[in-house]
Amino acid sequence: MTERRDLAASLATSWFGADLPPHARAAFLDLARVVDLPADHELTREGELTTELDVVISGRVALQLRVPGRSRATILTVEPGDIVGWSAVVPPYRATSTAVTVGVVKALAVDAVALRDALRADDALAASLYPRLLESVARRLQGTRLQLLDLFSGQGEGTW
Amino acid sequence: MPATDRAQDRAMSRPRLGVVKFASCDGCQLTLLDLEDELLPITDRVEIVEFAEATSARSSGPYDLLLVEGSISTPEQAHEIVELRRQTAKLVTIGACATAGGIQALRNVADHDAWRAAIYPEPAWIESLATATPIADHVTVDAELRGCPIAPGQLKEFLVASLVGRRPQLPDEAVCMECKRAGRVCVVVASGEACLGPVTRTGCGALCPAYARGCYACFGPRESANVAGLRQGFVAASLLTEAEVDERFAGFTAMAPAFAPSASAAALSYREGAVVRPSTDKAARPEVDDARR
Amino acid sequence: MTTARPTALPASLSPASHPDPDSLEPAFLERADLAALVVALRDDGRAVIGPTVRDGAVILDEITSVDELPVGVRETQAPGHYRLGDGRPDRIFDFTVGPMSPKGWTFPARVPIGTARRTPDGATFSAATPDARPLAFLGVRACELAALDVQDRVLLRGPVADHDYDARRRSALIVSVECTTAATTCFCTSMGTGPEVRDGADLVLTETTAGFVVRTGSERGRDLLARLPVRPATDLERDEAAGGVAEARAAVSANAGVATTGLPGRLGAALDHPRWAEVAERCLTCGNCTLVCPTCFCTSVEQVSDLEGTETTTNRAWASCFSAEFAAVAGGTFRSRPQDRYRQWLTHKFSTWVDQFGTSGCVGCGRCVTWCPVGIDVREELAAIAPPPRQALPVLPIAPSPVPDDAWLRAARVLDSRRETDDVVTMTVAWNDAPRPRPGQFVMIGLPGYPAAPISVSRVHDAAIELTIRAAGPATTALTRLGPGEEVGRRGPLGRGWPVERMVGRDIVIVAGGIGLAPLRPLIDSIAADRLQFGAVRIFLGARTPRDRLFTAELAAWTEAGLLVDETVDRAGADWLGRVGVVTHLFDHSERIPEGTIAAVCGPERMMEATADVLRSRGLTDDRILVTLERHMDCGVGLCGHCQLGRFFVCRDGPVFSLAELGDAFGREGR
Asked: H/E/C letters for each residue in C12-72?
């Protein structure tokens, strides 16, 4: 029970879980377990099936893309409170980047198949969880758009 | 070692300047000689290694700075410019032919083979492309000096700035700006002259309005050249008909993208002997011969 | 007019309010005796600038004799149309205004402002000496007097005076002429500037059938009148003169005009009106309207170098907000679309000018209407863009920071230069005999041969300042290549910096993107030096890649001083262990921002917009979000006009602004 309370506390303080209604929070916790991951641990691999969704509680996870002929590029780091593995609930359920822990990471892990089953079976859970998932993805999309502008490269260019 | 690296190695000594031409009249090259007072000091600062109009010395590259006059009109030229580009650190096109194709680019909308057959007794001996195209259609151009011919002041500014290492001041604004700074009275408003100054890039010192005639756009289009607005304004003021406005653009910079729709319409109507033709806004820039690529 | 038109002139030019009761005034000058006036002015060594016919128009030029003045000439004017014709026989001033105005002499199209020379041991910078020949203007109309006053406000009465304008303007004696005829393009009665001449002239002539009724407006004018063959005017002559002006007033009033009441507010509320795009289809963005306008004051600098590059003269030349280059900065121009440029011109002239200078920028002379080659009529455009009234903003209090009165650049020695990243260098420059820059202020830095560039001060020492410069163009590249002992030209400190006093006792969030950290570093220094004066301080830093991070050696010291530093980069290799993501990404995971926090943000404008959105969503109000803006700056002291943004000059009134101050001017395309 102590573990369950810790789990609940962790979820409640995370950005992802903070505003979930009680039912969704309980249902999510039923699926979740706490994991302590070492540095350089791979949570997902680009192109492969996503096996779990993680809510990062502490530490940092780097999302990396592979570019042939170059070393992997980190395009985003996932900070505490945010999620890794949204592809667990979006077909074709394959990871869009390789997620690697930077240092030790504590996370709440939810099995991908169990999560999908729960979302299919529990409309109330789905109605609460999907908007949070979308918000996280939308924020990344917005950030990526700004990155695309490569704003700092053009700074001060041209006039003088 | 690529040409650019070699050029840097030589930065301490005098930069090597070349002047070459393709399809053109030599007038722009001669502007260099017009610099007169500055010419000798310039030759102190740069080594002129190729300049047919001024010296019999011949050299093949590499060039630190190459001034290129003329448009590409033959298969041989299309090959040669690529070769020259390889040997050059900074390639600068000079004049309307090199920057926009020149007056000869009007052939881009003509029936090339028919003209060739009509003019030459042995058309088969004439090896020319169906188009006359600007240098930038063939190779990367580092800077351009506009005009027919180019302005001595701009050439000097370009050379001086290049030697000092600053950005040359070649303003992309309307001819009107320099016209008004010089205290000239607008020929459109005060005399009803059709003047292309508002859509033409400055640089000539507003020469034509100084002699009470309208600008004929030999420096080519400025940024935001509002050709449609100019045509509408001249027609509304009964200065010219639409067709007459188009004809004004069928000159030295006819095939510059902003002017090409108007100029092509005028050239086509000439070719077809048509007197009246519809509005030309939709006319596309003529296709260039793919063979030259 | 909602705003009172100013009457104050520079003290030396102010007319006395109590004319001598024994004077001849108003006097009468026979037409044949006008020659005596021209002679008297020339005898004083003045260049007499008056009307004459050339190239199909009444233009202004230096005249040497009364014979050069037009006789019996009147013009017809309409949008895009000007033709000379016959006026009343013998009348000399029977026309209205031509394409030129006194601006061509008080503020010439091109004048030198300084010369820079490379010397064996550095560089010298010398300001140009204004042309000293005194001027006399003959035939200045009421609207043109008002225009001179508008330019006085801009060029003389701000924190920095334009030296060249000052010299010319003070030298100029003005013989004014009241209009007794009107063109269809005149709308002085709308703008409250004419046709009657009230003040600002030394001598005022009103033409009648036989000659001129003459009044004086200054001591200089009275001295001049005493030397003319005049007699007191008869009542009949005075009545005829007044009648002529009244006729002109009636004619102007019958013209299309401008509804000035509440206009600044109405225009300000119409920034998204579809008419802007529509007028842009007709507008050629040629700039004619701005160059014939007697109040437009925008200029650009030009460099004229000798072949050796040892001597470069810098000229100031008329420029126009209708050219793309005018608002060019960082790889583009703020006003790329013609509609942005037309909107900038019209809204500045009729709206933000009032907020900025306490007067409309338009005097109703109609030149922009007549001399537009396609006849665009501002009166029509203003009538079409006519939304509901709005209260005008109070006049902006300017120059909160002391401004040095250097006319131009002064030489300063480079003490040190060190590389920060591949393309960024921090240069230490000796800083003596100049005020100590406040955090967020900038300086203009020039090298002989190059235009001066605005550079943020990134650290202040006792007798030196640090400048952090990114090699972006040739001028900044040349600066980054300088070594110790070399000389640069400097002017400053300039602009309004961060309001450090307002931040005392508060929590502070500092957000920097790329080289945007440079102008924030003096703020961070001030906070660190007096740490207990401030609440919690968080610093968010964004950079393109790990290699582009600035001042990395200092981050530990900042943390030690009790400032929380978070960093992120836009992209990184797998070896980077820090955060990756845009700078707003840092906020996504930061705890709540306490109420009352003040944010200071600097970076590319689009990054500042995204940051502002996040800060607003976290409850910060616009008056607590401070940004520092980048705009094209040629002069740095609020004279050249390039950095005009709404009612502000970014260089003089900023570059630091609160979003509340900027209002609509922030985050809107084409401003």
From this structure: HHCCCCCCCCCCCCCEEEEHHHHHHHHHHHHHCCCEEEEEEEECCEEEEEECCCHHHCCCC
